[in-house]
Specification:
With 472 residues, this protein is mainly α. The protein has one domain: Hydantoin permease (Orthogonal Bundle). 80% of the residues lie in helices and 0% in strands. The chain is built from 19 helices and no strands. The longest helix is centred in the middle third of the chain and has 52 residues. It is globular and about 70 Å long. The termini are far apart.
Length: 472
Protein backbone atom coordinates (compact mmCIF):
# COMPACT_ATOMS: atom_id res chain seq x y z
CA UNK A 1 0.00 0.00 0.00
CA UNK A 2 1.38 3.41 -0.97
CA UNK A 3 1.04 5.44 2.25
CA UNK A 4 2.59 8.48 0.59
CA UNK A 5 -0.22 8.59 -1.92
CA UNK A 6 -2.88 7.92 0.74
CA UNK A 7 -1.56 10.80 2.84
CA UNK A 8 -1.70 13.09 -0.16
CA UNK A 9 -5.27 12.07 -1.03
CA UNK A 10 -6.37 12.67 2.56
CA UNK A 11 -4.94 16.17 2.43
CA UNK A 12 -6.77 17.00 -0.81
CA UNK A 13 -10.00 15.66 0.68
CA UNK A 14 -9.51 17.83 3.78
CA UNK A 15 -9.17 21.12 1.90
CA UNK A 16 -12.21 20.32 -0.26
CA UNK A 17 -14.25 19.67 2.91
CA UNK A 18 -13.20 23.11 4.19
CA UNK A 19 -14.42 24.70 0.96
CA UNK A 20 -17.83 23.00 1.24
CA UNK A 21 -18.10 23.83 4.97
CA UNK A 22 -17.45 27.54 4.43
CA UNK A 23 -19.65 27.86 1.33
CA UNK A 24 -22.71 29.18 3.19
CA UNK A 25 -20.69 31.52 5.39
CA UNK A 26 -20.32 33.98 2.51
CA UNK A 27 -23.32 36.32 2.40
CA UNK A 28 -21.89 38.96 0.07
CA UNK A 29 -18.74 39.69 -1.93
CA UNK A 30 -17.15 41.48 1.04
CA UNK A 31 -17.39 38.21 3.01
CA UNK A 32 -16.04 36.34 -0.01
CA UNK A 33 -12.95 38.56 -0.35
CA UNK A 34 -12.20 39.56 3.30
CA UNK A 35 -14.17 37.13 5.51
CA UNK A 36 -16.07 40.11 6.94
CA UNK A 37 -12.90 41.43 8.68
CA UNK A 38 -13.52 38.91 11.49
CA UNK A 39 -10.46 36.66 11.50
CA UNK A 40 -8.43 36.05 14.66
CA UNK A 41 -4.66 36.79 14.72
CA UNK A 42 -3.65 33.12 14.55
CA UNK A 43 -5.59 32.56 11.34
CA UNK A 44 -4.34 35.83 9.87
CA UNK A 45 -0.69 35.21 10.75
CA UNK A 46 -0.61 31.63 9.45
CA UNK A 47 -2.57 32.63 6.35
CA UNK A 48 -0.20 35.52 5.65
CA UNK A 49 2.87 33.33 6.09
CA UNK A 50 1.58 30.37 4.09
CA UNK A 51 0.36 32.67 1.31
CA UNK A 52 3.56 34.68 1.33
CA UNK A 53 6.01 31.88 0.73
CA UNK A 54 4.35 29.46 -1.68
CA UNK A 55 6.10 26.76 -3.66
CA UNK A 56 8.99 29.23 -3.86
CA UNK A 57 9.99 28.64 -0.22
CA UNK A 58 9.67 24.87 -0.14
CA UNK A 59 10.87 24.12 -3.69
CA UNK A 60 12.45 27.25 -5.21
CA UNK A 61 14.68 28.47 -2.35
CA UNK A 62 16.09 25.01 -1.46
CA UNK A 63 16.75 24.51 -5.18
CA UNK A 64 18.53 27.87 -5.39
CA UNK A 65 20.61 27.06 -2.29
CA UNK A 66 21.51 23.68 -3.75
CA UNK A 67 22.60 25.25 -7.04
CA UNK A 68 24.24 28.45 -5.73
CA UNK A 69 25.32 27.70 -2.17
CA UNK A 70 25.57 30.01 0.84
CA UNK A 71 24.92 33.16 -1.15
CA UNK A 72 21.18 32.43 -0.81
CA UNK A 73 21.49 33.19 2.92
CA UNK A 74 21.04 36.86 1.95
CA UNK A 75 17.73 36.04 0.29
CA UNK A 76 16.47 34.33 3.44
CA UNK A 77 17.69 37.18 5.65
CA UNK A 78 16.10 39.80 3.39
CA UNK A 79 12.76 38.01 3.54
CA UNK A 80 12.78 37.70 7.34
CA UNK A 81 13.65 41.40 7.72
CA UNK A 82 10.91 42.33 5.25
CA UNK A 83 8.35 40.30 7.21
CA UNK A 84 9.34 41.98 10.48
CA UNK A 85 9.21 45.44 8.91
CA UNK A 86 5.83 45.29 7.22
CA UNK A 87 4.09 43.59 10.14
CA UNK A 88 5.54 46.30 12.40
CA UNK A 89 5.01 49.43 10.29
CA UNK A 90 2.20 48.70 7.82
CA UNK A 91 -0.20 46.13 9.27
CA UNK A 92 -2.13 48.14 11.86
CA UNK A 93 -2.37 51.38 9.86
CA UNK A 94 -3.54 49.52 6.76
CA UNK A 95 -6.24 47.66 8.72
CA UNK A 96 -7.59 50.89 10.21
CA UNK A 97 -7.51 53.01 7.07
CA UNK A 98 -8.98 50.42 4.72
CA UNK A 99 -11.93 49.90 7.06
CA UNK A 100 -12.40 53.65 7.36
CA UNK A 101 -12.51 54.03 3.57
CA UNK A 102 -14.59 50.86 3.05
CA UNK A 103 -11.91 49.35 0.79
CA UNK A 104 -11.87 45.60 0.23
CA UNK A 105 -8.96 45.48 -2.22
CA UNK A 106 -5.57 47.20 -2.38
CA UNK A 107 -6.51 48.78 -5.71
CA UNK A 108 -9.65 50.13 -4.07
CA UNK A 109 -7.64 51.60 -1.18
CA UNK A 110 -5.12 53.33 -3.45
CA UNK A 111 -7.84 54.72 -5.74
CA UNK A 112 -10.03 56.02 -2.91
CA UNK A 113 -7.03 57.78 -1.40
CA UNK A 114 -6.98 60.14 -4.40
CA UNK A 115 -10.56 60.81 -5.61
CA UNK A 116 -9.34 63.33 -8.20
CA UNK A 117 -7.59 60.57 -10.13
CA UNK A 118 -9.53 57.55 -8.87
CA UNK A 119 -10.47 55.87 -12.15
CA UNK A 120 -6.98 56.07 -13.68
CA UNK A 121 -5.31 54.75 -10.50
CA UNK A 122 -7.82 51.93 -10.24
CA UNK A 123 -7.33 50.97 -13.88
CA UNK A 124 -3.51 51.07 -13.68
CA UNK A 125 -3.38 49.01 -10.49
CA UNK A 126 -5.84 46.47 -11.90
CA UNK A 127 -3.78 45.96 -15.05
CA UNK A 128 -0.58 45.55 -13.03
CA UNK A 129 -2.16 42.98 -10.71
CA UNK A 130 -3.61 40.96 -13.58
CA UNK A 131 -0.29 41.03 -15.46
CA UNK A 132 2.06 39.93 -12.69
CA UNK A 133 -0.30 37.50 -11.00
CA UNK A 134 -0.50 35.43 -14.16
CA UNK A 135 3.21 34.67 -13.70
CA UNK A 136 2.80 34.14 -9.96
CA UNK A 137 -0.07 31.68 -10.39
CA UNK A 138 1.84 29.91 -13.14
CA UNK A 139 4.70 29.35 -10.67
CA UNK A 140 2.36 27.68 -8.17
CA UNK A 141 0.79 25.33 -10.72
CA UNK A 142 4.28 24.59 -12.02
CA UNK A 143 5.21 23.59 -8.45
CA UNK A 144 2.31 21.14 -8.26
CA UNK A 145 3.45 19.50 -11.46
CA UNK A 146 7.03 19.07 -10.22
CA UNK A 147 6.06 17.60 -6.85
CA UNK A 148 3.62 15.07 -8.27
CA UNK A 149 6.00 14.07 -11.05
CA UNK A 150 8.90 13.39 -8.65
CA UNK A 151 6.75 11.72 -6.01
CA UNK A 152 4.24 9.63 -7.92
CA UNK A 153 5.54 9.60 -11.47
CA UNK A 154 2.50 11.58 -12.61
CA UNK A 155 3.31 13.63 -15.74
CA UNK A 156 3.89 17.27 -14.85
CA UNK A 157 0.96 18.42 -17.00
CA UNK A 158 -1.41 16.05 -15.20
CA UNK A 159 -0.05 17.19 -11.84
CA UNK A 160 -0.81 20.79 -12.78
CA UNK A 161 -4.37 19.80 -13.65
CA UNK A 162 -4.88 18.08 -10.27
CA UNK A 163 -3.42 20.96 -8.26
CA UNK A 164 -5.26 23.66 -10.20
CA UNK A 165 -8.61 21.84 -10.01
CA UNK A 166 -8.52 21.36 -6.23
CA UNK A 167 -7.45 24.97 -5.57
CA UNK A 168 -10.06 26.50 -7.86
CA UNK A 169 -12.87 24.37 -6.40
CA UNK A 170 -12.33 25.11 -2.71
CA UNK A 171 -11.50 28.79 -3.35
CA UNK A 172 -14.55 29.23 -5.55
CA UNK A 173 -16.79 27.62 -2.91
CA UNK A 174 -15.47 29.11 0.33
CA UNK A 175 -13.76 32.35 -0.61
CA UNK A 176 -11.43 34.10 1.83
CA UNK A 177 -12.61 32.14 4.87
CA UNK A 178 -11.87 28.81 3.20
CA UNK A 179 -8.50 30.17 2.10
CA UNK A 180 -7.63 31.36 5.62
CA UNK A 181 -8.60 28.05 7.27
CA UNK A 182 -6.75 25.92 4.73
CA UNK A 183 -3.78 28.30 4.98
CA UNK A 184 -3.60 27.60 8.71
CA UNK A 185 -3.33 23.87 8.01
CA UNK A 186 -0.91 24.48 5.15
CA UNK A 187 1.25 26.80 7.25
CA UNK A 188 1.64 24.11 9.93
CA UNK A 189 2.61 21.53 7.31
CA UNK A 190 5.09 23.86 5.62
CA UNK A 191 7.00 24.91 8.74
CA UNK A 192 6.97 21.30 9.98
CA UNK A 193 8.51 20.06 6.75
CA UNK A 194 11.11 22.84 6.66
CA UNK A 195 12.20 22.12 10.22
CA UNK A 196 12.08 18.33 10.35
CA UNK A 197 13.40 17.37 6.90
CA UNK A 198 16.68 19.36 7.14
CA UNK A 199 17.33 17.92 10.63
CA UNK A 200 16.77 14.36 9.37
CA UNK A 201 19.00 15.09 6.36
CA UNK A 202 21.85 16.37 8.54
CA UNK A 203 21.53 13.33 10.83
CA UNK A 204 21.67 11.11 7.74
CA UNK A 205 24.79 12.90 6.51
CA UNK A 206 26.48 12.49 9.90
CA UNK A 207 25.64 8.77 9.89
CA UNK A 208 27.55 8.54 6.60
CA UNK A 209 30.49 10.44 8.07
CA UNK A 210 29.82 13.49 5.90
CA UNK A 211 30.19 17.02 7.31
CA UNK A 212 27.66 19.42 5.78
CA UNK A 213 29.93 22.43 5.28
CA UNK A 214 33.00 20.38 4.40
CA UNK A 215 31.01 18.67 1.66
CA UNK A 216 29.87 22.03 0.31
CA UNK A 217 33.45 23.31 0.24
CA UNK A 218 34.55 20.19 -1.61
CA UNK A 219 31.91 20.85 -4.29
CA UNK A 220 33.26 24.36 -4.90
CA UNK A 221 34.89 27.11 -2.87
CA UNK A 222 32.41 29.58 -4.37
CA UNK A 223 29.47 27.57 -3.06
CA UNK A 224 30.76 27.87 0.50
CA UNK A 225 31.21 31.65 0.18
CA UNK A 226 28.55 34.14 1.31
CA UNK A 227 29.31 36.18 -1.79
CA UNK A 228 29.65 33.31 -4.24
CA UNK A 229 33.34 34.12 -4.64
CA UNK A 230 32.63 37.69 -5.74
CA UNK A 231 34.51 40.64 -4.22
CA UNK A 232 34.15 44.41 -3.94
CA UNK A 233 31.21 46.04 -5.70
CA UNK A 234 30.16 42.77 -7.29
CA UNK A 235 29.81 41.20 -3.84
CA UNK A 236 27.88 44.22 -2.56
CA UNK A 237 25.50 44.00 -5.51
CA UNK A 238 24.86 40.30 -4.82
CA UNK A 239 24.15 41.00 -1.15
CA UNK A 240 21.81 43.89 -2.01
CA UNK A 241 20.04 41.69 -4.54
CA UNK A 242 19.38 39.03 -1.92
CA UNK A 243 18.29 41.46 0.78
CA UNK A 244 16.02 43.27 -1.70
CA UNK A 245 13.54 40.39 -1.49
CA UNK A 246 12.42 42.02 1.76
CA UNK A 247 11.25 45.17 -0.06
CA UNK A 248 8.65 43.21 -2.00
CA UNK A 249 6.48 42.34 1.01
CA UNK A 250 5.08 45.87 1.20
CA UNK A 251 3.50 45.59 -2.25
CA UNK A 252 1.98 42.11 -2.42
CA UNK A 253 -1.83 42.48 -2.60
CA UNK A 254 -2.50 38.88 -1.56
CA UNK A 255 -0.53 39.46 1.68
CA UNK A 256 -1.72 42.97 2.48
CA UNK A 257 -5.34 41.81 2.42
CA UNK A 258 -4.50 39.60 5.43
CA UNK A 259 -3.99 42.70 7.53
CA UNK A 260 -7.32 44.03 6.26
CA UNK A 261 -9.16 40.88 7.40
CA UNK A 262 -8.11 40.79 11.07
CA UNK A 263 -10.88 41.27 13.63
CA UNK A 264 -9.17 44.03 15.63
CA UNK A 265 -6.28 46.31 14.60
CA UNK A 266 -4.75 45.83 18.05
CA UNK A 267 -4.40 42.10 17.32
CA UNK A 268 -1.80 42.88 14.64
CA UNK A 269 0.75 42.84 17.48
CA UNK A 270 -0.12 39.22 18.31
CA UNK A 271 -0.13 38.23 14.67
CA UNK A 272 3.31 39.81 14.19
CA UNK A 273 4.87 37.61 16.88
CA UNK A 274 3.33 34.49 15.37
CA UNK A 275 4.49 35.41 11.85
CA UNK A 276 8.07 36.10 12.95
CA UNK A 277 8.34 32.86 14.90
CA UNK A 278 7.08 31.05 11.80
CA UNK A 279 9.45 32.79 9.40
CA UNK A 280 12.78 32.33 11.17
CA UNK A 281 12.79 28.49 11.35
CA UNK A 282 11.08 28.16 7.96
CA UNK A 283 13.64 30.22 6.02
CA UNK A 284 16.56 28.73 7.94
CA UNK A 285 15.22 25.27 7.15
CA UNK A 286 14.81 26.03 3.44
CA UNK A 287 18.46 27.06 3.14
CA UNK A 288 19.67 24.06 5.17
CA UNK A 289 17.53 21.75 3.05
CA UNK A 290 19.20 22.95 -0.14
CA UNK A 291 22.69 22.76 1.37
CA UNK A 292 22.02 19.26 2.72
CA UNK A 293 20.83 18.25 -0.74
CA UNK A 294 24.07 19.56 -2.20
CA UNK A 295 26.13 17.61 0.35
CA UNK A 296 24.09 14.46 -0.15
CA UNK A 297 23.75 14.40 -3.93
CA UNK A 298 26.09 17.04 -5.37
CA UNK A 299 24.95 20.41 -6.65
CA UNK A 300 24.55 19.16 -10.24
CA UNK A 301 22.78 15.89 -9.35
CA UNK A 302 19.42 17.15 -10.65
CA UNK A 303 18.77 18.75 -14.00
CA UNK A 304 16.16 20.69 -12.03
CA UNK A 305 17.41 21.38 -8.45
CA UNK A 306 13.90 22.48 -7.43
CA UNK A 307 13.04 18.79 -7.21
CA UNK A 308 15.38 18.24 -4.24
CA UNK A 309 12.73 18.54 -1.51
CA UNK A 310 10.28 15.82 -2.69
CA UNK A 311 13.17 13.60 -3.83
CA UNK A 312 14.90 13.84 -0.44
CA UNK A 313 11.64 13.25 1.47
CA UNK A 314 11.03 10.03 -0.46
CA UNK A 315 14.65 8.92 -0.08
CA UNK A 316 15.31 9.33 3.65
CA UNK A 317 11.89 9.26 5.36
CA UNK A 318 9.33 6.52 6.03
CA UNK A 319 6.66 6.59 3.34
CA UNK A 320 3.84 7.87 5.53
CA UNK A 321 5.94 10.77 6.84
CA UNK A 322 7.10 11.50 3.30
CA UNK A 323 3.42 11.65 2.34
CA UNK A 324 2.82 14.33 4.97
CA UNK A 325 5.76 16.40 3.75
CA UNK A 326 4.82 15.98 0.10
CA UNK A 327 1.44 17.38 1.12
CA UNK A 328 3.35 20.30 2.65
CA UNK A 329 4.93 21.04 -0.72
CA UNK A 330 1.52 20.97 -2.39
CA UNK A 331 0.19 23.05 0.51
CA UNK A 332 2.83 25.69 -0.13
CA UNK A 333 1.67 26.02 -3.70
CA UNK A 334 -2.02 25.95 -2.83
CA UNK A 335 -1.79 28.49 -0.02
CA UNK A 336 -0.42 31.14 -2.37
CA UNK A 337 -2.41 30.21 -5.46
CA UNK A 338 -5.75 30.40 -3.66
CA UNK A 339 -4.93 33.84 -2.27
CA UNK A 340 -3.83 35.07 -5.68
CA UNK A 341 -6.99 33.72 -7.26
CA UNK A 342 -9.00 35.79 -4.81
CA UNK A 343 -6.98 38.95 -5.50
CA UNK A 344 -7.41 38.58 -9.26
CA UNK A 345 -11.12 37.83 -8.85
CA UNK A 346 -11.61 40.83 -6.56
CA UNK A 347 -9.76 43.01 -9.07
CA UNK A 348 -12.02 41.88 -11.90
CA UNK A 349 -15.28 42.14 -9.97
CA UNK A 350 -14.77 44.94 -7.43
CA UNK A 351 -12.32 47.23 -9.21
CA UNK A 352 -13.12 46.78 -12.89
CA UNK A 353 -16.75 45.63 -13.12
CA UNK A 354 -18.21 47.28 -10.02
CA UNK A 355 -16.16 50.51 -9.83
CA UNK A 356 -14.60 51.34 -13.20
CA UNK A 357 -17.60 50.20 -15.27
CA UNK A 358 -20.02 51.42 -12.54
CA UNK A 359 -22.24 48.35 -12.77
CA UNK A 360 -24.63 48.22 -9.83
CA UNK A 361 -25.97 44.74 -9.16
CA UNK A 362 -27.27 42.85 -6.13
CA UNK A 363 -24.86 41.46 -3.54
CA UNK A 364 -26.02 37.96 -4.44
CA UNK A 365 -25.12 38.49 -8.08
CA UNK A 366 -21.76 40.02 -7.17
CA UNK A 367 -20.99 36.93 -5.08
CA UNK A 368 -21.90 34.64 -7.99
CA UNK A 369 -19.78 36.68 -10.39
CA UNK A 370 -16.88 36.57 -7.91
CA UNK A 371 -17.01 32.77 -7.91
CA UNK A 372 -17.19 32.61 -11.69
CA UNK A 373 -14.24 34.98 -12.08
CA UNK A 374 -12.27 32.72 -9.71
CA UNK A 375 -13.02 29.78 -12.01
CA UNK A 376 -12.04 31.61 -15.20
CA UNK A 377 -8.87 33.01 -13.61
CA UNK A 378 -7.80 29.53 -12.54
CA UNK A 379 -8.28 28.18 -16.05
CA UNK A 380 -6.31 31.05 -17.59
CA UNK A 381 -3.45 30.64 -15.10
CA UNK A 382 -3.28 26.90 -15.79
CA UNK A 383 -2.94 27.53 -19.53
CA UNK A 384 -0.03 29.89 -18.86
CA UNK A 385 1.62 27.42 -16.46
CA UNK A 386 1.46 24.47 -18.82
CA UNK A 387 3.23 26.42 -21.57
CA UNK A 388 5.93 27.98 -19.33
CA UNK A 389 9.49 26.65 -19.15
CA UNK A 390 10.71 29.01 -16.39
CA UNK A 391 11.84 27.80 -12.96
CA UNK A 392 9.59 28.61 -10.00
CA UNK A 393 12.30 30.81 -8.48
CA UNK A 394 12.58 32.92 -11.63
CA UNK A 395 8.82 33.30 -12.11
CA UNK A 396 8.26 34.34 -8.51
CA UNK A 397 11.23 36.73 -8.56
CA UNK A 398 9.78 38.54 -11.58
CA UNK A 399 6.26 38.83 -10.18
CA UNK A 400 7.51 39.68 -6.68
CA UNK A 401 9.65 42.49 -8.07
CA UNK A 402 6.87 43.94 -10.19
CA UNK A 403 4.18 43.89 -7.50
CA UNK A 404 6.56 45.05 -4.76
CA UNK A 405 7.77 48.03 -6.76
CA UNK A 406 4.37 48.98 -8.17
CA UNK A 407 2.52 48.99 -4.83
CA UNK A 408 5.08 48.89 -2.00
CA UNK A 409 6.28 52.52 -2.13
CA UNK A 410 2.70 53.76 -2.58
CA UNK A 411 1.35 51.80 0.39
CA UNK A 412 4.25 52.80 2.65
CA UNK A 413 4.08 56.49 1.75
CA UNK A 414 0.27 56.60 1.79
CA UNK A 415 0.35 55.37 5.39
CA UNK A 416 3.36 57.38 6.60
CA UNK A 417 3.68 60.52 4.42
CA UNK A 418 0.85 63.00 4.02
CA UNK A 419 2.31 64.89 1.07
CA UNK A 420 1.86 62.22 -1.62
CA UNK A 421 -0.36 63.38 -4.48
CA UNK A 422 -2.47 61.51 -7.01
CA UNK A 423 0.09 62.26 -9.74
CA UNK A 424 2.88 61.06 -7.47
CA UNK A 425 1.05 57.80 -6.77
CA UNK A 426 0.44 57.18 -10.47
CA UNK A 427 4.05 58.02 -11.35
CA UNK A 428 5.35 55.63 -8.71
CA UNK A 429 3.05 52.83 -9.81
CA UNK A 430 4.00 53.11 -13.47
CA UNK A 431 7.70 53.56 -12.69
CA UNK A 432 7.77 50.40 -10.61
CA UNK A 433 5.87 48.46 -13.26
CA UNK A 434 7.93 49.59 -16.26
CA UNK A 435 11.32 49.50 -14.52
CA UNK A 436 10.75 45.88 -13.50
CA UNK A 437 9.90 44.83 -17.04
CA UNK A 438 12.70 46.78 -18.72
CA UNK A 439 15.46 46.05 -16.19
CA UNK A 440 14.57 42.37 -15.93
CA UNK A 441 14.70 41.88 -19.69
CA UNK A 442 18.16 43.44 -20.07
CA UNK A 443 20.46 40.68 -18.85
CA UNK A 444 23.48 42.99 -18.52
CA UNK A 445 21.67 45.35 -16.14
CA UNK A 446 20.04 42.56 -14.14
CA UNK A 447 23.43 40.92 -13.69
CA UNK A 448 24.85 44.14 -12.21
CA UNK A 449 22.12 44.64 -9.62
CA UNK A 450 18.71 43.07 -9.05
CA UNK A 451 15.60 44.51 -10.71
CA UNK A 452 13.86 44.02 -7.34
CA UNK A 453 16.04 46.69 -5.75
CA UNK A 454 16.25 49.12 -8.67
CA UNK A 455 12.52 49.14 -9.47
CA UNK A 456 11.49 49.69 -5.83
CA UNK A 457 13.93 52.57 -5.30
CA UNK A 458 13.03 54.14 -8.66
CA UNK A 459 9.31 54.04 -7.82
CA UNK A 460 9.92 55.49 -4.36
CA UNK A 461 11.94 58.39 -5.78
CA UNK A 462 9.36 58.99 -8.54
CA UNK A 463 6.58 59.38 -5.96
CA UNK A 464 8.60 61.90 -3.91
CA UNK A 465 9.67 64.00 -6.90
CA UNK A 466 6.33 64.08 -8.74
CA UNK A 467 4.38 64.69 -5.51
CA UNK A 468 6.54 67.70 -4.67
CA UNK A 469 6.31 69.08 -8.19
CA UNK A 470 2.54 68.59 -8.45
CA UNK A 471 1.92 70.31 -5.12
CA UNK A 472 3.48 73.57 -6.35
Amino acid sequence: MDYTFLGFLFYLFLVLVVGVFTYRRNKDHSDYFLAGRKLNPWLVAFSERASGESAWLILGLPGAAMASGLIEVWTALGCVLGIIFYWSFIGKDLREKTERSGSITISDFVAKSFPENETLLRLASSVIILFFFTFYLAAQFNGAGKVLEVTFGIPASSGMIIGAAVIVIYTMLGGFLAVAITDFIQGLLMVGALVVLPIVAIVELNSRGISLFSAIGEESANLSSLTGGAEGMAAAALIIGGLSWGLGYMGQPHLLTRFMSINDPENIRIGRKIAIWWAIPAFSGAILLGLAGMAMYGHVYFSDPEQVMPFMANSILPSWIAGVFISAAIAAMMSTADSQLLVVSSTIIEDIYHKILSREVTQKKLLLMSRLSTLFTGVAAFLIAITSQELIFALVSYAWSGLGASFGPIILLRLKWKKMTANGALAGMLTGFLTTIIWHDIDYLNAIISARFVSFIAAFIAIIIVSRLSRN
